[in-house]
Amino acid sequence: MDSAAAPQQASDRAALEAAWSDVRAGVRRVIGVRQFDQWIRPLTLGAYCTLSGTLDLEAPSEFSASYVASNFATRLALAWRAAPGEVRDIRVVRAREAMESVAVRPRGPAPLEQTAGRPAEAAPRSSRFAPRHDFAGFMTDESNMLACSAAQAMAAPDKPRFNPLFIHGPTGFGKTHLLHAIAAAYGATLGEGAGSGAILYMSAERFMNEFVGAIRANDTFSFKARLRAARMLLIDDIQFIAGKGPTQEEFLHTLNDLIDSGARIAIAADRPPQQLSAVDPRILSRLAGGLVADIQPASLDLRLKILNARRAAVAPIAVPDDVIALLARSIRTSIRELEGAFNKLVAYAQLVDKAITVDLAQTMLAEALRASVRRITIDEIQKLCAAHYRIDASEMRSHRRARAVARPRQIAMYLAKKLTPRSLPEIGRVFGGRDHSTVIHAVRTIEAMRLDNPEMDADIRALQKQLEG
Q1: pLDDT of res. 322
Q2: Which CATH superfamily is domain 378-468 in?
Q3: Entry pTM
């Protein structure tokens, strides 16, 4: 280490320690002693990048890092912005393992005087992105398989057959996850010698703010040069440039120059290109000229798969199957909310030293369960199954045993068990006063038949998608 640099680094570290003491005190007043002692007190200062203004806060475990990132990110970020110094972004990482970090950024744009002339988030190495947001951690089924496969092709060493890649879907279903995974995988392909600006990731809002900041600083040349030097550009939430004329013009030029130079482009939005109103038609044409891949709402099977992965990550904490089933059936609005509910439940159970049960989950997550559920009723299931199999809806409650009637009725019972919170006796009563053992038999029969009968499996998937949509 340069002997002249050492005192300066020590001084900078002391300033960070002093600022961290102020930040901790402020956060403690806001969130209370109990929450502070459980989640914030164990955090310690980690690495600090003077170029990007990004500070690592180290947590004792991956679960703690994930929980703090999910629940205290905004408050910590705002507190650091108010503190003296140049910290602009924070990450919460597992102590001693910075490669396994959970990326956290202040929500909303940084002030223009801070963003002007500052680089966008650069990623020469996969460590610059949240490691849980890699391809291995992205659970797939039919709802998102195309988007995931296209993202993997975009990140592969070989030149992709399409460019740009446009991923769209509802909020909280994995678009940002895929952008991070693309950047991490492509960064690993490029290696350490690629340079800090080889991969650039930013939101459309940040693109706009940096561009406006560069105009105000009379330094648009540096802004343009930095973007056009990238070998990969990833833009999130592109819908936010709608109606921003000068920003759109600059984005179009950036898009054209990068594509012409062979750079890779991946863009995410909450809707397909043709539904982006107030966006320059030339941009829409460019976006639609690559590959457009959608992410549909996650199926019940995918939600179960995601929750089971989260359960494995928090072992040995016990999360019973019936709790996993309750969350998967009830929270359908977004994967982000599903994982947030799971994290909240586990954290609460640890804080109060209680076993995780269905009753505890229903009490702790009552608001989330009410807000997220589109109530699927057994009546809806009966009517849809009857229409699909072309029988009268009254047959769902009849005692006829003809195969043409009995099998659709069993499928309806199976779906009622999977898609509603109703108990077995309740389901049996709605199906003509049947015993709960009849419902159990129907569920087991259909589960077995789905494994051996691809046509029936496809039918049930289609019915489930209609009900959940």
Answers
A1: 93
A2: DnaA protein, C-terminal DNA-binding domain (1.10.1750.10)
A3: 0.58
